[in-house]
């Protein structure tokens, strides 16, 4: 069956259609957590969501389109950034949010399943990249505001600072298996903050001039 021409996430219907979408995405989450990407079957997702198979096939058309829409929805539903008045406080809030998400029984399992799926499917990978680009864009202003306050140097790459906060947390989550808790989150945030203040994330002058 051909995939829908409209990219997932471009339509935001209301009413019954929104309820159907929410039920299907919740069922897709359950299927991902229980069976992984390869175990997703649209007919089974429809059964779990208690909606017609025709509706699911017509709107999503394939598991990868469904997972891409799920990631878009996750980005939309993510918690807004904190505004504590200091870079250290904002980055600490960001790091603690990442840790809470990754250590949540359901959300942690879902992220592992989605990341695993993205390693073998280009469309899922693109959706995952959009998800993280959205989250980075949400939190980047905490760094640009810190530049305006004089906390960090002019030319600091805000996105790189935000990435530096979450990178060691995802390393523990996916690679090393070391504990994830608030102390680890605070340390990651403090390290990124200190590096930013020292100018480690200032863009090269050649890049700034382009």
Automatic annotation (TrEMBL):
Record key words, sorted: DNA-binding, Transcription, Transcription regulation
Domain annotation HTH tetR-type: ranges: 18-78
Sample GO molecular function, one term: transcription cis-regulatory region binding
Record has Nucleotide-binding as a keyword: no
Pfam families from the UniProt entry: TetR_C_11 (PF16859), TetR_N (PF00440)
SUPFAM superfamilies reported in the protein's UniProt record: Homeodomain-like, Tetracyclin repressor-like, C-terminal domain
Record PANTHER family: HTH-TYPE TRANSCRIPTIONAL REGULATOR RUTR, TETR-FAMILY TRANSCRIPTIONAL REGULATOR
Protein name: TetR/AcrR family transcriptional regulator
């Amino acid at each position: 069956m051909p995939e829908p021409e409209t990219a997932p996430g471009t339509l935001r219907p209301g009413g019954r259609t929104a309820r159907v979408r929410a039920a299907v995405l919740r069922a897709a989450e359950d299927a991902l957590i229980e069976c992984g990407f390869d175990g997703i079957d649209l007919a089974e997702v429809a059964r779990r969501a208690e909606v017609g198979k025709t509706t699911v096939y017509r709107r999503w058309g394939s598991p990868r389109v469904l997972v891409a829409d799920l990631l878009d929805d996750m980005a939309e539903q993510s918690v807004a950034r904190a505004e504590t008045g200091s870079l250290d406080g904002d980055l600490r809030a960001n790091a603690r949010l990442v840790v809470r998400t990754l250590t949540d029984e359901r959300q942690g399992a879902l992220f592992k399943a989605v990341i695993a799926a993205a390693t073998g499917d280009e469309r899922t990978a693109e959706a995952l990249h959009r998800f993280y680009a959205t989250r980075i864009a949400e939190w980047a202003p905490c760094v640009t505001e810190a530049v305006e306050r004089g906390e960090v140097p002019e030319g600091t790459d805000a996105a790189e600072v935000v990435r530096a906060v979450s990178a060691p947390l995802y390393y523990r989550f996916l690679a090393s298996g070391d504990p994830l808790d608030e102390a680890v989150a605070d340390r990651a945030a403090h390290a990124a903050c200190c590096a930013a203040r020292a100018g480690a994330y200032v863009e090269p002058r050649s890049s700034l001039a382009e």
